[in-house]
Amino acid sequence: MRKTDLHEVIRALKSESDRRNIEGMERFGISTKGTLGVSIPKIREIAKEIGKDHALALELWDSGIHEAKILASMIDDPELVTEKQLEKWVMMVDSWDVCDCVCSNLFDKTRFAKAKAFEWAVREEEYVRRAGFVLMACLSVHDKGMKDSEFVPFLKEIEKGCTDERNFVRKAVNWALRQIGKRNLRLNKLAISTCNKIAVKDSKSARWIASDALRELSSNAVQSRLKWRESKSR
Asked: Are residues 33 and 119 in the same domain?
């Protein structure tokens, strides 16, 4: 495969097409528009063969093919991503899996990640808002250099966004809350406090988010792991 040949890459994706994967995607509520049915492990293999290629990533995204968009997020260079590109791509997201992939593979590694988490979390578009909260979740896992104080404003946004009843949004809010609460003991306490605040809101979404997150964050498994981690860092 020539590294920058879009048509060769598309052919490689099509050669891995599997109708059974498309049927599985439908069961999980994933959009099958422009879908080839290529598994994520196969996409990763192709991405590894290509390496980083910003120009090709832009072409792949514009192809409109579901798996090509995911591949684009894997091979793009976060140092070359512009704010204009971020805004264009997030507005073209039409499925929760693409949203999560572009956030965890690329967006959270750009210099705009923290700002976009705040900006997108208050936007009205469903997948844009989801992206805002997914970025919070991804940053809590991937960015080891972030200070605890930087996550406190995220928790405030979670408290505001928890009443959105749209399934793909509320699950992202829940994800962000749980990931922040599993970062360390201090943030765990703050996240549990946030759970208690949103649990009393007059919203089915808020109550579900609070109950589900609290169940995990207060569990013996999470508490033991965080205490062990803190003891090792002393």
From this structure: no
Number of residues assigned to the chain: 234
C-beta atoms surrounding 83 within 10 Å? 12
In a domain, 87, yes or no: no
pLDDT in tens, 64-74: 999 999 999 99
Do 61 and 24 sit in the same domain of this protein?
Answer: yes
Residues 110 and 223 in one domain: yes
The burial class, CB within 10 Å (0-12 / 13-18 / 19+), for 84 is exposed
Rounded to 5 degrees, φ, ψ at 143 are -95, 95
Are the C-beta atoms of 177 and 158 separated by less than 8 Å?
Answer: yes
Count how many domains the chain has. Answer: 2
Q: How many helices (H) and strands (E) does the chain have?
A: 14, 0
Q: Which domain holds residue 203?
A: 96-234
pTM of the model: 0.94
Same-domain status, 55 and 158: no
Domain holding 138: CATH number? 1.25.40
pLDDT at position 1 is 47
**How many whole angstroms separate alpha carbon 129 and alpha carbon 102?**
14
For position 166, what pLDDT does the model report?
A: 97
In a domain? residue 88: no
- Give dist(CA 7, CA 28) in Å, integer: 29
Angstrom distances, CA of residue 90 to CA of 98, 134, 221:
10, 12, 35
Predicted local confidence at residue 4, as pLDDT: 67
